[in-house]
From TrEMBL, chain A:
SUPFAM superfamilies: Cyclophilin-like. This is Biotin-dependent carboxyltransferase family protein. One of its GO terms (molecular function) is hydrolase activity. It comes from Bradyrhizobium zhengyangense. Keywords: ATP-binding, Hydrolase, Nucleotide-binding. It holds the Pfam family CT_A_B. InterPro entries: CT_A_B, Cyclophilin-like_dom_sf, PxpC. Residues 23-310 form the Carboxyltransferase domain.
TrEMBL record, chain B:
InterPro entries: Biotin_lipoyl, Single_hybrid_motif. The lineage of its organism: Bacteria, Pseudomonadati, Pseudomonadota, Alphaproteobacteria, Hyphomicrobiales. It comes from Bradyrhizobium zhengyangense. It holds the Pfam family Biotin_lipoyl. This is Acetyl-CoA carboxylase biotin carboxyl carrier protein subunit. Residues 61-131 form the Lipoyl-binding domain.
UniProtKB/TrEMBL annotation, chain C:
The gene is pxpB. InterPro entries: CT_C_D, Cyclophilin-like_dom_sf, PxpB. GO terms for molecular function: 5-oxoprolinase (ATP-hydrolyzing) activity; ATP binding. It holds the Pfam family CT_C_D. It is an enzyme of class 3 (hydrolase). This is 5-oxoprolinase subunit PxpB. Residues 6-204 form the Carboxyltransferase domain. Keywords: ATP-binding, Hydrolase, Nucleotide-binding. Coiled coil: none annotated. The keyword Magnesium does not apply. Its EC number is 3.5.2.9. The keyword Nucleotide-binding applies.
């Protein structure tokens, strides 16, 4: 069990998301940075999909009621176990009663904002419609379908006892960088209404920085930048959408649908941030600026393959180290 | 220092995950040469020798595996330790990165950091000297 | 000529969008339901999700070459038999206007109709559930009279309550839970469209229908 002493705000239980319930109107949810979650689980020798805590606001503190192996991945939030600093992206053991404190992340080496507290065995909330992720809109999944509060107690699945401590994994964010003019960049495939926007809108989309406004959350990122204008007003019939879709409401300021996005919508779509780059957005802090990069179907699939390769290589080396790990 | 021959399979697997082409390993039992051509790793035993390890009051902490030497965690902008720092046994003084894997270079005992040998970001071989530590309570052998 | 053909477009690498040609109609929707059944069985497809006269194909694994599945969808579209509308009908009591219908004035302003006209027109038809989407249990309804069509809001509202009856473009619907929306809310009702403890969790499914019963009109 872990006990939440200071919940910050909007911290939730997430796994890699809920698939297959779109026909009920249920979106995918899941970690905003699925790579940090999967990497944390690999480090702890969990299933990649094991549930963890996603923490966007700080300070955040938990007490471990039992001896527990854990790792803090995502942004570097200067974790402390009781008073002692502990490394991020590192497998640690906490003794019963020890308190883990997470502070506001430093962005000195990596512009990231979300932290994942991964636990050997995983957070053991009930799986609902195939996932432990919190469905905020539907108020189910995760812990009672809501963000965490002070005093919450979270069950931990019996760890298989495989986890080893005292080593780490490098943040994939550093291994798979993508920047344009010093800003986080994400690759985009044009969507159905792309050609219906004006040439100056196309120009702006690809060449201007876009600010992530404070009205941004797990549902969507509202961006500020030049106005994007369709050649003529469009009213679309409601249709399925996915996380990453860049909608342009009548006001001309785009909204990128994120993990808690509804599974359907009707605003014109100028493009879609590719699945392989959604974690970059998931980590981009509010107030930061991003760039869009046009890409092709093949490039988008290659990007997904590169991510999968990184994860499977990490899994292979962690297993190798843990199985033969007499190295001292 | 442990004998590299004890770990030759693991070393080969680690080497395969890097872009290091040639690795020479010197240990008390001899010298090993591992060649990595991008696809497979060949192991060659070159000679048996009894290399006398220099003994000094300063304990030389050597690379337990070949890899990329990092004097700080990849998310940190300052080295983990500097010359003159007092460290406790078990504290990670530096790191060795093998692909996505990050292994600690721990202090074997309590002591003071007196020297650093490797450069941040350098590729180091098995047994390469990394950090000099003046142990507490055993200032001479 | 191209407007007679279905349109296919990308939703990133995770899904394809199939859009039927022509004006929105129940006849077309019956074909979308039939296509959803077939497309959901194609290899590499995780789920086929009907929208309003369109269908999203969510990939389990995106195909390296999309031509094959795109071609198959068009082929199926031309060959399939539409599914019949066969469902149950739900009566929903609605309070129009007032605090529960904060955007009634915007619909009045856009349409030039009176509140009474809007209520009469909105509560007259039997609406067919075309699709589920937006949020858990939410039903997209077909059959709204185009005289009360009102564009979606320029800036979406961050929170509209469960039970909100609203108009977005040429469509109407009822929110199944609290949340953000770009639609114009004209009234409110009370019904549990979704309960995860229930099997199936969603109250209605495509092919069912809804009738709005006016309880009161607040001004």
């Amino acid at each position: 069990m872990i006990e939440v002493l200071s919940a910050g705000a909007l911290a939730t239980v997430q796994d890699l998301g809920r698939t297959g319930a779109l026909n009920l109107g249920v979106g995918t949810s899941g970690a905003m940075d699925p790579l940090a979650l999967a990497a944390g689980n690999i480090l702890l020798r969990n299933e990649e999909n094991a549930a963890a805590l996603e923490i966007p606001l700080f300070p955040f503190r938990v007490r471990f009621t039992h001896s527990t192996v854990f790792a803090v991945t995502g942004a570097d939030c200067a974790p402390r176990l009781d008073e002692a600093p502990v490394l991020p992206w590192w497998a640690h053991r906490a003794d019963a009663g020890q308190v883990l404190s997470l502070a506001v992340p430093s962005t000195a080496t990596w512009r990231a904002s979300r932290v994942y507290l991964c636990i050997a065995g995983g957070i053991d909330v009930p799986s609902v419609l195939g996932s432990r992720s919190t469905q905020l809109r539907g108020a189910f999944g995760g812990l009672e379908g809501r963000p965490l509060r002070d005093g919450d107690r979270l069950p931990i699945a019996e760890p298989p006892g495989r986890a080893k401590t005292g080593f780490g994994i490098t943040p994939p964010g550093l291994a798979l960088p993508l920047e344009v003019d010093g800003l986080t960049a994400v690759r985009v495939l044009p969507a159905a209404e792309y050609d219906s926007f004006t040439p100056s809108s196309h120009e702006a989309l690809w060449s201007e920085p876009w600010k992530i406004t404070s009205q941004s959350d797990r549902y969507g990122y509202r961006l500020a930048g030049p106005e994007l204008r369709p050649q003529r007003p469009m009213e679309l019939r409601s249709h399925g959408i996915v996380p990453g879709v860049i909608q342009v409401p009548h006001g001309g300021q785009p909204i990128i649908q994120m993990r808690d996005a509804q599974p359907s919508g009707g605003y014109p779509k100028i493009g879609t941030v590719i699945d392989a780059d959604l974690w970059r957005l998931g980590q981009a802090p509010i107030g930061s600026r991003i760039r869009f990069v046009l890409c092709s179907w093949d490039e988008a699939l290659d990007a997904s393959a590169a991510t999968r390769r990184w994860l499977s290589n990490a899994r292979r080396l962690v297993e190798l180290y843990c199985n033969q790990g007499a190295v001292r | 220092m442990t004998n590299p021959l004890d770990h030759v399979d693991q070393l080969c697997a680690f080497l395969a995950a890097t872009d290091i082409g040639l690795l020479e390993l010197k240990g008390p039992a001899g010298v090993l040469r591992l060649r990595h051509d991008g696809a497979r790793v060949e192991v060659e035993m070159i000679e048996a020798a009894t290399a006398a390890l220099s003994s000094s009051p300063t304990q030389i902490i050597r690379a337990p595996v070949p890899g990329l030497y990092l004097d700080r965690h990849p998310l940190r902008s300052q080295p983990s330790v500097a010359v003159g720092d007092e460290v406790a046994a078990g504290t990670p003084l530096a790191f060795l990165q093998i692909g996505p894997l990050l292994l600690p270079v721990p202090a074997p005992e309590d002591g003071m950091v007196v020297e650093t040998f490797a450069e941040h970001g350098a590729t180091v071989g098995y047994g390469a000297p990394l950090i000099g530590l003046q142990p507490h309570g055993s200032d001479a052998e | 000529m191209t407007t007679d053909l279905p349109q296919l477009s990308l939703l990133g690498t995770t899904a394809l969008l199939f859009e039927a040609p022509g004006e929105t109609s129940l006849t077309t929707q019956c074909r979308i339901w039939a296509l959803a059944l077939e497309a959901g069985r194609l290899p590499g497809v995780r789920e086929a999700v009907p929208g309003m006269n369109n269908l999203m194909i969510a990939f389990a694994e995106p195909p390296r070459h999309r031509g094959q599945i795109e071609h198959r969808l068009i082929e199926l579209w031309h060959a399939l038999e539409p599914l019949p509308v066969a469902g149950r009908c739900l009566d929903l009591p609605v309070v129009y206007g007032g605090d529960g219908g904060p955007h009634m004035a915007d619909v009045v302003a856009h349409t030039g109709l009176s509140v009474d006209d809007i209520v009469a027109i909105h509560s007259a038809p039997t609406y067919t559930v075309y699709a589920l989407g937006s949020h858990p249990g939410y039903c997209y309804l077909g059959g709204m009279d185009q005289r009360i069509a009102t564009p979606r809001r320029k800036v979406p509202v961050l929170r509209i309550p469960r039970g909100a009856v609203s108009i977005g473009g040429s469509q109407t619907g009822v929110s199944a839970s609290d949340g953000p929306s770009g639609w114009n809310t004209i009234g409110s009702t009370e019904v549990a469209f979704f309960d995860v403890e229930r099997t199936p969790p969603a109250l209605l499914q495509p092919g069912d229908c809804i009738r709005f019963k006016t309880i009161r009109v607040l001004r």
